[in-house]
DNA sequence: TATTAATCGAGACGGTACGTCTCGTCTTTTT
DNA sequence: AAAAAGACGAGACGTACCGTCTCGATTAATA
């Protein structure tokens, strides 16, 4: 049978949602496919949360084949991790109030607001949950995201040490206490914006009499 | 027809695993069924972890009908919560070393060992994860289990306050820092028994120079 | 313990639908219970058809216990049979047109209308279907309902024989042909009111040239 | 990676009963799966009758996933219809005795024997029953199977008309009487082999004095 | 009059099927 | 070689009925 050139015209490069079709680009990873998959996954996650996040639905929305997804993200957790990492991290500019306790207060309020009010923030809970069942998720969480996102926090404590507010050796001891406090609050859904509550924690950690 | 006392004997009380049958005891919940289901669920959880924990399998093992399970535990999370609550809590006797930092050191080491080495401990991670997707699980975790299991911890801090090691008002501020630290370590799988590591945390919280 | 007359007042004889309760009347079958069950079954059948006809729902509606139903109607088919038999049979007065073919025409049209337009009529299909899986239903259908309801039909043929239209010995041969024709039409859902169509059959059976 | 011809061998074509697995053959319906499912359904139907015919059991026996079944047979009735249509139709050679009445006698006796003695025959009752609850089954029965299987019957009457035994216009009037008679007997379980009984019907229909 | 026996509503029980959902693998066809 | 497409086995999900079995209350018939 002869090649039918009109069929090629019928094939569109974009999403399949509206009937279009993303053709293969040959023996190379298709950036379009990757993009479409990540977009679909992101949107799905934002719309229906982690419980509604399924590979089947991502494939449907992305107009992608499931094997295409599994080829690049061996497991559901891997895709989830990538989606999470592609999210715009919290627009959290580390505050410069001149005192550790007030820095912590400002930063924590912003962080909790982000966790509460953005899909990406809410997804973080799911990532922690996923990490309890999936080693890749755990590794990604612990070794990839945390170090990156903790830079700002570390910066605050380092500055405080530079100002002489706390001893420099204390920084690595205080960090996990601060992180843990926030996680504990997040995971028990106690991250309402309560400045007094946060202030107490901040002053306790900063060693400032209240 | 005469009463036949032997009929009561004809009714098998126990599991259906080997073909026996647990008869109804009337229009009231059967303690035997409940027991069998919780036992099966507990065993399944210990054997295969939370990911292998399914209502179907619990029903199979318990020799129970699935509707019987759903009648009493409307959701999988509810059963899981009940199973967890039936678990023997950590046999953690709060230490009495005479100093907060060493109390914390001893208690934390024991707690981490429990988390590491017992199925029940490992299940706690799953409960926290489940709580991120299920409101009942969250409520149970936050309002039912935590208050109960935190008594010992609170006791340690109260004793320290009584000894004058820390200010009494500081106790409710220090508690979430301590809990959060432990959760953070558990959830990132960093609960190896490292006495030095734990000591640092303990001294930081206790305000004792190291 | 003394008899408490006030308790008897608390017990209402009627349906449980609105919270009332039908107490036992002693070691005899309760006509009220039977009535309530048959009523509920009849209503359910009319409302939801045979596929929606379940013992559970009948018990619910009747405010009866399931064992009460099973005590008197050992199987679902038995209850169904009773319900069917309690239905008012078709108000089919055998016509007296003076000729077999026109008697058959009139009777068949009325029968098909009954089958089409009344719940009871529609239920007859279900009874035939049920009879294919349940021996009691088969026996009831064949030996209980058919003889009864065929009286009118037989009467028409007998009259025709008396008038000399057909030979008397032919009656038992023609009957099953007539019945079978109607069943075939009913079971293949071909019982629209088509006078011509029916006339052809009637004339064929009556031996009248068309 | 080189093509590994042995891989094709690694894929078991047959049933999964013993742990083997029927691999996908791409984005097209798998004839093997279809075959296995129909085989299993046929066997199950023969073994346990229609009441024992369940999708779950078919899936189990076929080593197929339930969704695979539901993908191709949206409803239980659809699968049943397909199974029935795959059954070998009755090996009923239309007799050529030279007279309608004796043709009918021979044919009817063979038909009843088939209905009595073969699973497929017994299944026909279930199909008629199913058709009373399921429109697809009704349509399939009326418009698919009947026209096909009535060819032989029609042939007998046509031949009789050709021989001048009956008027040609009478054929379509006699057919439903003959079919209906057989159905009526089948559905009331009155298809014992009674030559005299059948002869009477045959002579009545053929218009032959007995 | 006290006991016995059968009835009642209620509803739990084990079991099984239903039809849907998702997982991760596999294969064909197209580029 | 990689893509889209989608079929596949597996099996969990939660619901609906089935028919059985107690329960505790109630009442007629029996002793």
Automatic annotation (TrEMBL), chains A, B, C, D:
TM helices/strands, residue ranges: none
Disordered: annotated span: 1-30
InterPro entries given in the database record: Homeodomain-like_sf, HTH-type_TetR-like_transc_reg, HTH_TetR, Tet_transcr_reg_TetR-rel_C_sf, TetR_C
Keywords: DNA-binding, Transcription, Transcription regulation
Residue ranges annotated for the HTH tetR-type domain, each copy included: 31-91
Keyword Transcription regulation: yes
Domain of life: Bacteria
DNA-binding segment(s): 54-73
Protein name: AcrR family transcriptional regulator
Taxonomic placement: Bacteria, Pseudomonadati, Pseudomonadota, Alphaproteobacteria, Hyphomicrobiales
């Amino acid at each position: 049978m002869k090649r039918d050139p009109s069929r090629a015209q019928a094939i569109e490069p974009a999403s399949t949602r509206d009937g279009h079709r993303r053709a293969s680009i040959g023996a190379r990873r298709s950036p379009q496919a990757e993009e479409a998959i990540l977009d679909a996954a992101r949107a799905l996650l934002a719309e229906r949360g982690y419980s509604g996040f399924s590979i089947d639905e991502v494939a449907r929305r992305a107009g992608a084949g499931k094997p295409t997804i599994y080829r690049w993200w061996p497991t559901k957790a891997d895709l989830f991790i990538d989606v999470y990492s592609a999210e715009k991290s919290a627009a959290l500019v580390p505050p410069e109030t001149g005192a550790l306790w007030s820095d912590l207060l400002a930063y924590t309020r912003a962080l909790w607001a982000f966790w509460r009010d953005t899909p990406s923030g809410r997804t973080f809970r799911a990532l922690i949950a996923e990490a309890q069942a999936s080693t890749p998720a755990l590794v990604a969480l612990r070794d990839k995201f945390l170090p990156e996102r903790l830079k700002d926090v570390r910066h605050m404590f380092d500055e405080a040490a530079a100002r002489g507010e706390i001893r420099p050796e204390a920084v690595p001891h205080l960090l996990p206490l601060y992180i843990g406090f926030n996680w504990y609050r997040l995971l028990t859904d106690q991250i309402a914006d309560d400045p007094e509550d946060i202030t107490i924690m901040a002053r306790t950690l900063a060693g400032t009499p209240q």
